[in-house]
Amino acid sequence: MTINDIAALTGVAASTVSRALSRPERVSRVTRERIQAAARQLNYVPNTQARALSSGRTGTVAVLVSDVTNPFYFGIIRGTQHQLRAAGYAQLLVDTEESPELESHLLGKVRRSVDGVVLAASRLPEETLSVIAAEMPVITINRNVPGVRSVVIDSPDGVAQATEHLISLGHQQIVYVGGPASSWANEARWRAMRGAMTRHGLTAVRIGPFGSARASGTAAADALLNTGATGCVAFNDLIAIGILDRLAERGVDVPGEISVVGCDDIFGADFCNPPLTTLTAPIERAGRVAVSMLLEHLDSPARKGARPAVILPTHLTVRQSSGPAPQRRPPAPRSGSPVVQ
């Protein structure tokens, strides 16, 4: 299959097809999506070797994620892969295992083999990221560093929505269950919750940090119970699901005694018992937008007016894990004590 076949199927000129696949920002969104769909339908495979010889590019983009087993990254990986494939690029997937040291090491390993990098939830210090972005094309996802192009899922606004939701249900003691200490998003979400609580004259409490895996929910749930809180917002859905499991083991009713809210709306969040109230985020779209921004940069690295950052909105999806704050009953009188009517 050639671009002429795609042109015949879509009814546009072959030159338009070429631009849509190699320089997507130069074609309207509707036309670009129609051409990309036709390319997938025809199983079009561009001649990347010829392009590499003429352009000096490898035709490969590295996508680094902090934990490939976390369902949150499934959508990002799918989004980047679809967008790269439509543009004729291969994707190199790298798992950095939540380690800034490994992330830095692997970036050094792949930098000569790829045209650019998409960094999802980077754990690197800001200074290191700035240096790397100055040396090679980089787009970050869920990491906001001055001078580095980024796609940010606005989960802090979602956390503020979640906090308002719990306050509206009568909760006054609400805890933020923190994620990894090296996570930029973790601190941003905590600041958002603290701000929402302060606006209502309430004091925010944070516990953690905890790992981002489901197993961390056991320790998080025990620490949560020790606070006496009636509601919590967890760093991510995996921790929240682990909390639900542990609370069930301990016979704590959710949401009767404690309301639990997660973040990301990963696959399975609505299958929990009870189904998890969580922040729904455009995760796959974030991957697509990151690739589009990277390709724009590759095609016109010095172009003025390039998008420095894109912020994608989130919204709260209310399910059965959150409910009204429990009514605090006075303690039962001790034996022999008078009962006041």
Automatic annotation (TrEMBL):
PROSITE patterns: HTH_LACI_2. Residues 317-341 are annotated as: Disordered. The keyword Disulfide bond does not apply. This is LacI family DNA-binding transcriptional regulator. GO terms for molecular function: DNA binding. The keyword DNA-binding applies. Pfam families: LacI, Peripla_BP_3. Residues 1-55 form the HTH lacI-type domain. Signal peptide: none annotated. Keywords: DNA-binding, Transcription, Transcription regulation.
